[in-house]
Amino acid sequence: MDILLRDGRVAEIGPPNKLRGAAEEKFDARGLIGAPGFIDLHVHFREPGQGYKETIATGAAAAAAGGFTSVCCMPNTSPVVDSTDWVTWLQQPQRGAIVNVFPIAAATHASKGAVLTDFRALQRAGAVAVSDDGRPILSDTIMRETLRLASETGLPVIQHAEDTRMTENCSMNEGPTSFRLGLRGMKAAAEASIVERDVALAQQFTGARLHVAHLSTADALKAVRRGKRSKAYITCEVTPHHFSLTDEDVGDYNTYCKMNPPLRSASDREALIVALADGTVDAIATDHAPHAEHEKIIEFERALFGIIGLETALGLAITRLHREHKIALARIVELFTAGPARVVDLRGRGTLARGSHGDVTIFDPKKRWTFEAAKSRSKSRNTPFDGWQLTGKVVATVVGGKFVYRAD
Amino acid sequence: MISPAQAIPSPGTGTASGPATRKVTRGSLLGIEHLDAVEIMSILKLARRMNPLKPRPLLRSKRVLLLFYEASTRTRGSFEIAAKSMGATTTLVLSSGSSIEKGESLLDTGYTLRAIGADVIVIRHPHAGAPLLMAQHLDIPVINAGDGMHEHPSQALLDAYTILRHKKQLNKLQVAIVGDIFHSRVARSAIHLLSKFGAQITLCGPSELLPEMATGLAPGLRISRTAEEALRGVDVIMVLRVQKERLAGQRIRLQDYIARYQVTTARLKLAKKDALVMHPGPIIRGLELTWEVADCPQSAIVEEVHNGVPLRLAILAKALGKAR
User: Fold this and answer.
1) Do B19-151+307-319 and B154-304 come out as alike in CATH topology?
2) What is the CATH number of domain B154-304?
3) Is A207 a member of any domain?
4) What is the ipTM of this complex?
5) Is residue A373 part of a domain?
6) What are the angstrom distances between the C-alpha of B92 and each of B83, B155, B307?
């Protein structure tokens, strides 16, 4: 197939050499796959406030190198993105983003879980969802109100599903590895119980959309499946690290394997892979969470949660899901494109239909390469995948008809 | 040597990379888990050759840094006595009253102590893995004097040393470990050590203090929920304190605990006649064991403390490469 982009849009798509109209610039993608631009529903670009970890410009550069043409930024910055001013600020050209940035606004003021923000105003300013990511909404009343108000605007509510009352002082998944290391473990039930409650609450409001962020346990998947069978609109995402690693990989206190939700058991990982294949999972999202060395090369229990993930997402998906578990490439592309576009309702993205945005990701599904963290476009280096040999590499990334990344 | 054989993962798909995959300094003693039986035996044999009353001045002009982020009586005291009696100078740094209070990081504290001339650091820390982190970044040996709920290797070594003064061998020995195993670094180190020598270990305690996943620590571990069953016919009873300071929200009804798990004279009778009663201390009489059991003829509790010195002589001599 050939794709013709004009004025930032898909002008035509059709069989080779049959497109009308001349192109100024041509890209020979023979042997490669041209997909709709990838969409990451879950990144932490750390601005405002923590530019030493990542800026919107460096985060966006890493996104482009990973094939992502659109990213949704979580609001747990400093200050929290809970006002239209910050939502607007994030999208200004001065931020230097080479990919599309879609803000997710806080659901409550300063994500304190007490007073709801102005959803309608935030939506008009450009927010595509509301979330108190990192600070789960525990109160039933506040979560019910959040879903009710959001249902009137059509905004999805993204929940970091963790009952933090059960995970105090915990730094990894509960299991034989946490016991061996003498670390307090997070129970899988702390995730599932919140998902179950949220699914039940979402069913109370017509039009409510609940999206479960970085889902990591088999039990939470069961709750999502039940929710999807009801009339409620329930979606979920899974990260590359949760389908690639398990809690055993923490080894002897590897802080690059410390994230929240934590790496889980092997059976949880297997359940995630099944759910990625069968359609239960709507999107692969990276939860790209850059941190500086002094926040990671410290005692395990004191180290901050999170790893970077934009540049390894496609390689891990093809290596782990396609090659090892035989999930079709078309399904993997869907998890990076149409799936996430539906979750946050990004019209004209996640597709290459005529008239849609000229966002294209071109990748080589067979290319073997070695990821080197030192060469990452991100400002941070906190990744457990340094030195990994992966199959599947982004060759070029096009945003609004313009190349923003080309592999060397 | 004492340092654990740290696997350096070769780059490739499947093994997570990260700062924790760095090598540790030779001579470090970080835990029992990564030691093999031969390495353990060599420390025990060296300890046996040590004369705690008049050790050779193996550490003359050496500087031993005792870095303690947590309270300690036995461990700190015996490391200090061991170091001094071999001719070393010791310096004690506590978390209170040092720059740690001002927010200095663990590694920066380590670099500072190295810069002022430390030859070895003995560290106790509330966070699991802290000694390993230090050993990965400093070029001097690091000795773990207890890290969070993780390991307390010198305690396990002195316990093995003590057992071997009363029993011929560790292999096939029936051992019951009773009490708060979840919070206990002593238990984790002891389990690793004893199982490497083929002891048959029964863990005993309520599920809050002894979760089922504990059996993953070593092959062949058994769990028992009644003290009577656990103690029947054993050669060694290791009693552990209920660590109220680490309970963090868990509620244990102490009266229930005492009723079901306290080591009493009656329960002790179920064990072999010559069964050894051990406890890493501090003991809380009337809680995990009765007054009578603590002072009974079979009790090795005081002897354990006593044996801490020759054992730590051996650990320090090994760490500084002075062991023959």
Assistant:
1) yes
2) 3.40.50.1370
3) yes
4) 0.94
5) no
6) 12, 20, 22
Query: CB count, 10 Å around CB of B215?
Result: 16
Q: What is the DSSP string of A349-405?
A: -S---TTSB--EEEEEEEEEEE--GGG-SSS----TTTT-EEEEEEEEEEETTEEEE
Whether residue A178 is contained in a domain is answered as: yes
Please name the member of A175, A176, A181 whose beta carbon is closest to the beta carbon of B128. A181
Instruction: Please give the angle made by the CA atoms of A219, A255 and A158, to the nearest 5 degrees.
Output: 40
Question: Which residues, other chains included, contact A404 with Cβ-Cβ below 8 Å and sequence gap of 6+?
Answer: A64, A69, A98, A99, A397, A398
Q: Is the dihedral of CA A316, A318, A319, A321 positive or negative?
A: positive
Region of A229 (left: φ > 0; alpha: ψ -120 to 50; beta: rest) is alpha
Q: Please, which residues have CB within 8 angstroms of residue A193's CB and are 6 or more apart in sequence?
A: A163, A166
The domain total for chain A is: 1
- The tokens describing A101, both together, are 């940035």
Selecting from A179, A253, A299 the residue whose C-beta is nearest the C-beta of B217 gives: A179
Give the predicted TM-score (pTM) of the model.
0.95
Where exactly are the structural domains of chain B? 19-151+307-319, 154-304
Residue partners of B243: CB distance under 8 A and separation at least 6 = B180, B183, B184
Q: Report the relative pairing of strands A402-406 and A389-399 from DSSP bridges.
A: antiparallel
Tens of pLDDT, residues A18-33: 887 777 889 999 999 9
Q: Where are the beta strands (DSSP E) in chain B?
A: 63-68, 89-94, 120-125, 142-147, 174-178, 200-204, 222-224, 236-239, 276-278
B282: cis peptide before it, omega within 30°?
yes
Residue by residue, DSSP assigns A77-139 as SSS-S-SHHHHHHHHSGGG--SSEEEEEE-SBGGG-SSSB--HHHHHHHT--EEE-TTS----
Question: Which residues, 6 or more positions from B294, have their beta carbon under 8 angstroms from its beta carbon?
Answer: B277, B279, B283, B285, B301
- The topology (CATH level 3) of B19-151+307-319 is Rossmann fold (3.40.50)
**Which of residues B31 and B103 earns the better pLDDT score?**
B31
From chain B residues 65-124, the ones with a CB under 8 A of any chain A CB are 105-107
Hey, are the CB atoms on A168 and B129 less than 8 Å from each other?
A: no
d(CA A72, CA A12): 27
What pLDDT digit, counting tens, does each position of B244-256 carry?
Answer: 776 656 667 888 9
Q: What is the CATH number of the domain that holds A264?
A: 3.20.20.140
Report how many Cβ contacts below 8 Å link chain A to chain B: 117
Inter-chain CB proximity A182 and B128 less than 8 Å: yes
